[in-house]
Amino acid sequence: MRLPALLILAFAFLLPMSLRPAFSQTDPASLTGIVIDDADADLTGDWTTSVTNKPYLGVGYIHDGAEGKGEKSVLFTFTVPESGKRHVLIAYTQNSNRSKKVPITIEHANGEALIYLDETKRTELGTGFTTVGEFEFKVGQTATVVIGTTGTTEHVIVDGIRLLTAEELETARKNEKTAPKPTPVAAGDKKPAPPRPAPPVYVRAETKEPAAATTIKSADDLQKLLTKAGVPDGELVDDVKFLRRVSLDLVGRQPTLEEYRACLADKSPTRRQTTIERLLASPDFGRNQANYWCDVIGSRQQEPQLTFHDYTPFREWLTEEFNAGKGWDEIAFQMVTSVGTVGERPQSTFIGFHQGDRSRLAGETTRVFLSLKIACAECHDHPFVDMPQEQFHGMAAFFARTSVTITQNNSDGIDIQPAEKGEHKIPGKKDEIHPTFFQGDKIQLGLSDLARREQLGYWLVSSQNPYFARSFTNHVWARLMGRGFYDPIDHMGQGAQAVHSEVLDGLADHFVASGFDPRSVFRAILNTQTYQQAVRSDDAKTRKFFTGATPKKLRGDEVFDSLVAAIELPDVEPPIEKKTAAVRFPIPPKSTRDLVNEAFGFDPSTQDALITRTMNQAMFLINNVQIRQQVDGHEDSETVLARLLKAEPDNDKVIDVLYARVLTRLPSDREREIVAGHVKNIDSREEAFEDVLWSLLNSAEFTTRN
Fold it and tell me: Is 113 helix (H, G, I), strand (E, B) or coil?
């Protein structure tokens, strides 16, 4: 009789569960304090309900769609059971596309308070709440919290409010900071869905000391190794040219006018080292590295139908990781072992945007992180090198249980959800393929998705992996010198030959010994005489000797950020198009930065000789509306040029400033003669200098790193 009794007890327990409302995340009734969900608030204007990002309160949250600014607001009304001070908490789902200055008006016992909330920041509590202040409330007196949209430009999210005493807040901080997220329960389910597994936490293994012969502890050591390899010394570039080159390389833009002037004024013998350290410490360093790797990774990711990839969360995450000094091994490990949605865990972008496709992931994981191209062995043995088809599919088998759910329109909702079963087979063959490392070692069948991806991640970033450290180091060298030790930079496999491989090995050992610190590689190279030498022609005679950096075309983000530095180009973001019956999936509008990237962007793995200047680039600089507005010299335009002409009556000084702002140098005598003659021959001073500024922006020199 025990079994029927247990069944009756289980049924009695499950029946009430099936009749409860289906809270996808946190039930308001389960929280302490006064809790009001957005569903119980008074709305002004047209708000949209969403469940894309988590955690959220109740059955969803609302957002303003980043439109109708100032016309929309949410009113929460409440009374307190007893007089006293209470903390006001706001619930929202954090993301990078949220507004940074959401106005919140709180009516309390002592008057009214206006507070601004940054919804791009992570919430304080694990249940999605953040405190905005402590206020006095009186029993029986109606109080309100109004969340508005006035003055905002991005999305405003409203999920609910909560009032807690100081003691209740302290308890909530202890209990909700690290509390596991509630498991979604759909109406009618007999049991909750199994909890999503947490991604593995990376622990770096101890590294072996590099061989003394290849140990690099400073730029001097690297320079000696270069000299030993036969790289000849050359003439150093002057300080101003060095400033422009190193600024583009480290922070992804040309120097500002203030930085240019500071460079001219600095007579310290260590001014170049100081400049390098200042730029390495700049937040723009992480942003520039994030832009570069977004281009490397995103250039070969294919958008699924009815979805448009938004790399903003991924770019923000990468920026934070680089600026926080995280090692490249930890960053890469997180990318190949992540689970969850792209919006919640931007680390999921690499796998999620490849839609979990095991073939694409096999090819791109080895190409991006190891500089090995194995895609040719997917359908047959590699035609040119010793790489059997099984080698490719052994890598693909690591992703056999990696399942990705695609969301329409919003790529933040693309979700990595490990499958419980499944193995990989070569198409047309019966045998299940063991997950196999590129060097031949196999792991057993039957492992979970995260277990096999964790093993892949540790092998991938190991100091014993002969490719990982060398791949990253080769990327950095190619960015700084114009050509990698291997060229193209993503082909270090069989058949590829390195130039001065002993230098690459020394730099890679240095990278490993530093804890895979990207700054250490940049610092070592930038302080060498080889990097600081004048540019050289990229001909066959001098190419292999690295006798100086070669000119490089600027990437899209570098062009945009240099336009910001030169003429304060604004990043105009058009309004999001509304869905209609005719257009259910509107194409996301393109900002000014997007348009510049579209014209000037390219896959950084491409050999320089194959990156061409295009008519689209020329026409963009000639005709873009925002650029033309910033070239306006008339006083009422308030542009950089207009302010300069108003403040400086001396035309020669105006010429100097324009050259310094756009090209980070002064004009040559011949250039000054031509420009001065043109200004003299034009009746309107404003229009004459508009021509000058426009010409400088359209020069090949402006979009070239030299």
Answer: strand
Give the whole-angstrom CA distance, residue 468 versus residue 510. 13
For residue 382, what pLDDT is reported? 56
Distance CA(626)–CA(17), nearest Å, equals 57
Average pLDDT over residues 92-113: 91
Residues 66, 576 contacting (CB under 8 angstroms): yes
| Cβ(231)–Cβ(547) below 8 Å | yes
pLDDT of residue 213: 47
Q: Which amino acid is at 435?
A: P
CB-CB contact of 106 with 115 (8 Å): yes
CA 440 from centroid of its chain's CA atoms: 33
**Cis previous bond, 574, omega within 30:** no
pTM for the model: 0.72
Whether the pLDDT of residue 99 is over 70: the answer is yes
Give the whole-angstrom CA distance, residue 155 versus residue 64: 6
Question: Where do the domains of the chain lie?
Answer: 28-176, 212-283+467-550, 284-460, 556-705
Give the pLDDT confidence score for residue 360 in this predicted structure: 93
For residue 624, CA distances in Å to 558, 631, 640, 662 come to 17, 11, 17, 17
Q: For 16-20, 87-91, 364-368, 494-498, which range has the lowest pLDDT when averaged over its residues?
A: 16-20
Residue 487 clears pLDDT 50, i.e. is over it? yes
What is the distance between the alpha carbons of residues 548 and 532, in angstroms, rounded to a whole number? 7
Cα atoms found within 13 Å of the Cα of residue 678, Cβ hemisphere only: 16
Q: What angle do CA 590, 251, 482 make, to 5 degrees?
A: 95
Q: pLDDT at position 353, please?
A: 95
Q: Return the half-sphere exposure (C-beta side, CA atoms, 13 A cut-off) of residue 257.
A: 15
Mean pLDDT of the chain: 87
Tally the C-alpha atoms within 13 A of residue 494's C-alpha that lie toward its C-beta. Answer: 12
How would you classify the pairing of strands 424-425 and 415-416? unpaired
> Looking at residues 659-680, what average pLDDT do you find?
96
Q: What mean pLDDT is predicted for residues 629-647?
A: 96
- Residue 679 near residue 667, CB atoms below 8 Å: no
User: Which of 78, 558, 102 has the alpha carbon at shortest distance from 294?
Assistant: 558
Tokens for 390, please give them: 């099984």
Half-sphere exposure of 555 (CA within 13 A, CB side): 23
Q: Is 267 helix (H, G, I), strand (E, B) or coil?
A: coil
Write out the CATH class of domain 28-176: mainly beta
Contact 252, 558 (CB under 8 A): yes
Full 3-state SS string of 49-75:
EECCCCCCECCCEEECCCCCCCCCEEE
H helical segments located in 252-384: 257-265, 271-280, 283-298, 312-323, 328-337, 349-352, 358-370
The Cα–Cα gap between 573 and 456 comes to 40
Contact indicator for 129, 28 with CB cutoff of 8 Å? no
- Paired tokens of 353: 């945007």
Phi, psi of 432 (to 5 degrees): -80, 135
